[in-house]
Amino acid sequence: MRAVSLIDSSEPGAGPQALMKAAPGSFTEMAKSILRALQSCLLLCCMTLHAAAAEHIVFKYGHTADLRGLANVLTAFRSACLAEPVTASLPAQLLPDGYRIVTRAVHMWGKEDGSFPDTAILSKTGDEDGDIAGGYPIIDFMLPTAKLPDGACSVRWKRRWAQDYPDGASRLSLDMAASLAARVSYYLDATLTSKPNDIFAIAGSYSDLTTWRTGCRATKPCRFDVNARFDQEGVDLTVTSRGEVKK
Q1: 3-class SS at 8?
Q2: 3-state secondary structure 97-143
Q3: CA 133 to CA 172: how far, in whole Å?
Q4: Closest CA to 121 of 105, 132, 97
Q5: How far is the C-alpha of 71 from the C-alpha of 151, rounded, in Å?
Q6: What pTM was computed for the model?
Q7: In the predicted model, what is the mean pLDDT of the chain?
Q8: DSSP class of residue 239?
């Protein structure tokens, strides 16, 4: 079967070169149109990918006073404080199921008095005492302002052993404290930059403040702190972003 050409080469001057000579401007305009279309598609794709990057936080495990609860906190911190820049729209994009957004004033005092306008708390109960009593992680945002252009972000989790384990103080406090650094490093792909403890002795309570470095916002290095306490009552953990590492 003979191939059929869209251009009849039997006609004088009907070849591609003749067409280009006949209308050189049309090919230039066509190339410009195609380039503009490609640029628009690329921009749209980038915007779509960026918009899709921030997804609702899903607590994969129960907020139990053990590794499951710790994993929830660290993965929430990664989504809220490391993966995306803090913006006014980010809290709503990340809001976990069953959570609500309140200002710090409402979370602390139960009413809005305008004292913390540039804040957004992702809260299970809408109340600080209620979240702590229930052992639910609290995700705290300081939204960007002129004085704090990058905003700030932290996740706090306080839970009593008795909510999950009658003998948790004796069984879990040592394990949680001794393995905390390894778990932070694993879940956040982080490197400890502060001085590690010289000795770890069995005690009634364990507390430590450590500083870490990890990648954030795809390729940038960021710092964060882990302030942890494990005692006879339970676990009290706050992970706080310190922003990008300045060169």
Answers
A1: coil
A2: CCCEEECHHHHHHCCCCCCCCCEEEEECCCCHHHHHHHCCCEEEEEC
A3: 19
A4: 105
A5: 24
A6: 0.77
A7: 84
A8: E
Alpha helix (H) ranges present in 54-123? 67-77, 90-94, 104-109
Contact 141, 153 (CB under 8 A): yes
Residues in the chain: 247
Which residues neighbour 223 within 8 Å (Cβ) at sequence distance 6 or greater? Answer: 193, 211, 212, 213, 241, 242, 243, 244, 245
d(CA 117, CA 160): 31
Q: In whole angstroms, what is the distance from residue 27 CA to residue 21 CA? A: 10
End-to-end CA distance of the chain: 68
Q: Which residues contact 217 (CB under 8 A, 6 or more apart)?
A: 82, 83, 84, 85, 244
What are the tens digits of pLDDT across the range 24-49?
Answer: 555 456 555 555 554 544 443 433 33
